[in-house]
Amino acid sequence: MTEEHAEHILSYGKLTTVWVTLLVLTAATIMVTRVELGVWKVWAALAIASIKSGLVIAFFMHMKYEPRLFRIILFVALFTLAGFIGGTFFDVLYR
Amino acid sequence: MSQETAMAEGGFWRDTGRTGIGAWIFSTDHKRIGLMYLYCVLGFFLVGAFLGLLIRLELMAPGPTIMTAKTYNALFTVHGVVMIFLFIIPGIPASFGNLVLPIQLGARDVAFPRVNLFSWWLYATGAIIVLVSLFTGGGAPDTGWTFYVPFSARTTTNVSLAVFGVFVLGFSSILTGINFITTIHRMRAPGMTWTRIPLFTWSLYATAWVQVLATPIIAITLLLVVTERILGLGLFDPTRGGDPVMYQHMFWIYSHPAVYIMILPGMGVISDIIPVFSRKPIFGYKMIAFSSLAIAAAGSAVWGHHMYTSGMSDTGVLVFSFLTFIVAIPSAIKVFNWVSTMYKGSISLEAPMLFALSFILLFSIGGLSGLILGAAATDIHVHDTHFVVGHFHYVMFGGTGFAFFAAAHYWLPKYFGRRYREKPAIVGWVFMFIGFNILYFTMQVLGMEGMPRRYYDYLPEFARLNFVATVGSWILIAGVIIVVWNLWHGLFKGEAFAGNPWGGATLEWSVATPPPTENFEEDPVVTHGPYDFKGAGVP
């Protein structure tokens, strides 16, 4: 209850770097669709999307600078979502 | 001013800048919001119970009895929607949670009082939308409360508006969950460590997580049903590449954890009442607290057990059946700990305790019949029969419903400064308990014999037991009327209730009766556990 934290202001340079990285990764997503990877195509797209959302959460949403509790809460939410999707695939993949 | 008058008009009842209804519907005081929820959910409970009574009257004898088949379909749908979304989900958390949680933590209010009021407004708006949907458009939905596709995408009844109402109600639930989680993390009084939090508040903490994480899924699912109806996208239509079973997954991903939104707060109520009326500290405090979290976590992973006969893969059936059995472990931990708490206790059988004791029995019957449904091999035989209806009424009504009345008898006198009469409360409880078992145990037997649920008519061999069940519903409703009337009359006109007559050691019993607007004259410093009666100085 006492873990007050100071406002953390990110520099324009850092924000721009993250933004450019996101654009590069978007381009990478498109390029991956043109390479013949078979079933790995989906995993590649999902991996890139995960990195992108990770960057957005960490820097644009400031999660990197928040107290540990908030990061745990975010993890619980993501873990739950993964559980919901994963559980559904016990049906869809084996039908 | 006599002591009696002072109590009924004192505390948070008096301290307000506004007058009339505005002092309530614009108040950010958690106690007033809790009472507004209480009046609403109690009203909807009575409406739902009346609809249930009509359903039983129709089933009293084979063939048409008092209504048409179309009316019957609408009635069981509306009974389900009202009871699930308007009564039991907000039932204990929004009403008693709001009334009790901040005081139990030593806080002056919840973390976001305005958001709390907004939650109530969303609830009221959602409720009005649902009620309007019953009487407009193509009439009351006839899909069952589950709104299963493909029927819900095709029926001409007013499904779109009804599911939109449920969508709005969902946001009320999410905001209440966020508010409670934040309050528990940020607003605890000095000395209120995690292991001094009362178990009712612990159960609300676990519930709030489920509300926040699972409710968005039903929101998006119901919106998809609306888009399916309006735009005909074919999301759930196999002829256009859709998957109707996917709807069931998405629906139950929320609606099964929602069962724990319903039952966990009830378990919390029981965990607070049993030690007080046994004059003994709770047995296994930490295990009960953590089992709430375990139920919330495990309960979020078992939704597939509603779909064993829906065409799900065998692997899915196997996995979900296994996971379902895991939920029984934390549930059993609670039951064993409650019973152990009472062992060698000085038990006093007053109304809250009687409701709490019947909770343990009825919930156990409901839980154990749930194992029959959780095991795929036995579920195949009783799926969609009256056995299922009996089972979930044992858990939902025998569990949460009885816990709701236990909480009402335990806490409401503190907030009203007046109390109900004990004898009618016990008479009402006896009627409820007997009527309940005649009604729902008979349903389970009927289901075992093969009587399907949601059927307007049935074979002659089911006639006798259906008649018995209907008689049970009359006894049950008589008990409900006695209990509600006695509570209502007592809380507004009964004798004065002051101090801490039950002898509770949690913080809500240390404040004035009724509690003042900001709960505490001075910020409390917590020096003892929630069930440490000696530490609290309670005899």
UniProtKB/TrEMBL annotation, chain A:
Chief localisation class: membrane
Keywords of this entry: Cell membrane, Membrane, Transmembrane, Transmembrane helix
InterPro entries to which the protein is assigned, alphabetical: Caa3_sub_IV, Cyt_c_oxidase_su4_prok
Membrane topology: Multi-pass membrane protein
Pfam family, any one: COX4_pro
Cellular location(s): Cell membrane
Transmembrane regions listed in the UniProt entry: 12-32, 38-60, 72-94
Stated name of the protein: Cytochrome C oxidase subunit IV family protein
Native species: Geomonas diazotrophica
TrEMBL record, chain B:
Enzyme kind, highest EC tier: translocase
Keywords: Cell membrane, Copper, Electron transport, Heme, Iron, Membrane, Metal-binding, Respiratory chain, Translocase, Transmembrane, Transmembrane helix, Transport
Stretches assigned to the Cytochrome oxidase subunit I profile domain: 18-527
Subcellular location field: Cell membrane; Membrane
UniProt membrane topology term: Multi-pass membrane protein
Keyword Repeat: no
Pathway the protein contributes to: Energy metabolism; oxidative phosphorylation
Highest rank taxon of the organism: Bacteria
Reaction equation(s) it catalyzes: 4 Fe(II)-[cytochrome c] + O2 + 8 H(+)(in) = 4 Fe(III)-[cytochrome c] + 2 H2O + 4 H(+)(out)
Pfam families: COX1 (PF00115)
Reported function: Cytochrome c oxidase is the component of the respiratory chain that catalyzes the reduction of oxygen to water. Subunits 1-3 form the functional core of the enzyme complex. CO I is the catalytic subunit of the enzyme. Electrons originating in cytochrome c are transferred via the copper A center of subunit 2 and heme A of subunit 1 to the bimetallic center formed by heme A3 and copper B.
NCBIfam families: CtaD_CoxA
Similarity comment: family membership: Belongs to the heme-copper respiratory oxidase family.
Protein name, entry field: Cytochrome c oxidase subunit 1
Gene from which this protein is expressed: ctaD
